[in-house]
Amino acid sequence: MFNLTLDERDRRWKKVRDAMEKRGFECLVIWGSYGRFRHFGANLKYLSNMSAEGYFVFPLKEDPTLVMFFARPDPTAWVADGRTGHPHYSKVISDRIRELHLEKGSIGVVGLSGYDGEMGFPHTTYVSILGNLPGAKFEDATEIMTEARIIKSPAEIKCLEIGCEIGERIIKVIVDTAKPGVSDSEVRARVMDTLFREGCEPDSMLLYHSGKEILHAGQGGQYKPPHPRILERGDIILTEFDAIYSGYVAQYNQPFSIGEPDREWKEIFKVAVNAFNQGLNVLKPGITTGELYQAILSPIREAGYTSTNPAFHGLGLALEDPVSLFPAQAGYRPDTSLKMEPGMVVEFEPHVVRPDFKKGASLGSPVLVTETGCRLLSRNWKPEVRIAG
Question: What does the alpha-carbon distance between residue 74 and residue 84 come to, in Å, rounded to a whole number?
Fold first, then answer.
């Protein structure tokens, strides 16, 4: 069992407080929830070492406070002061800010902007805090946490590497279980059983879809009761899953074939492998996210296919920056001039989609940007379809 230390806590707190001081903030109020596979709790988890729904009051100089459903922090938490806030969180947050004598201070609010900004800090709580503290100055401080989390420490990378080891075991479980006559429900149950037994967290994402004409793992009815489909020879299984260890998301996009895939599927997989490897070839410090996106996308376009999902996105305690262009979400416009730096971790997941949108697949795993280039965080995984059955 690998545990994050108090040295890691002190590193994070100092990094965030240095940024607060630079911006003139005397306190941050950080929101977290279990939404989207607990990704929405990443900022709270980063500073408290606790997976919880609630708020984190993080002063520049005094001890922080967790405001949650229950008053007692988990024994692994880096915070001693836990207070129950349900159902009136805004009152408890406002009272704590008054205790800190910051009722006229400069307060940063985390969760108002960014990729998930419109699914972030609850409006009712925000408005209530503003009304409770009319003399305080409130500003969006989401960027402070985004910048703090984008470069991973050795301890964070270790958590991701452990998750990758578990992810490789999940892939083996699917290869050993999926065969003609076995139901999709059995395969999915074995995956979740393995995740829990290996120490992964609840809500670890599992997207799963099977058939002969399928496009994306997320189109398999994930949010409906598992259907009783029985696997057949020639089926393709598309998976996208997270092995979440100590909060850190090791994500895989892994296709499987029940028996040898047919010629068309082999071509799709070949193009996905080429796109993935092209990303590995060009990723190094200094390359921009726009350049990396174009490099990964070029083999897909040259082969006559299209793409719908991002070619890559950051990984840590959530799906996070940097995120590439996202064709399926035309309104999203990331900063394509952002330069890759050592310590960034990205999930490569080139999606190769037939122009009629009836067939497609992706290959993906976590990649670390190093001082001289990049490396896979998996020890044994490589971009390829896995043969089962």
Answer: 13
Helices (H), the chain: 6-23, 42-48, 89-99, 123-132, 142-150, 154-177, 184-197, 263-282, 289-302
- Alpha helices for 24-82 (secondary structure H): 42-48
Average confidence (pLDDT) over 179-197: 95
Please report the pLDDT score of residue 226 as a whole number: 57
Give the number of residues written for the chain.
389
Question: Which domains, ranges and CATH numbers included, belong to the chain?
Answer: 6-149 (3.40.350.10), 154-388 (3.90.230.10)
Q: Looking up tokens 């990723």, which residue turns up?
A: 283
Q: Is the peptide bond between 334 and the residue preceding it cis, with omega within 30 degrees of 0?
A: no
pLDDT digits (tens, 9 = 90+) for 318-337: 999 999 988 878 788 888 99
Whole-number mean pLDDT of the chain?
94
pLDDT, residue 76, reads: 86
- Other Cβ atoms less than 10 A from the Cβ of 2: the count is 12
User: What are 295's two structure tokens?
Assistant: 């490099």
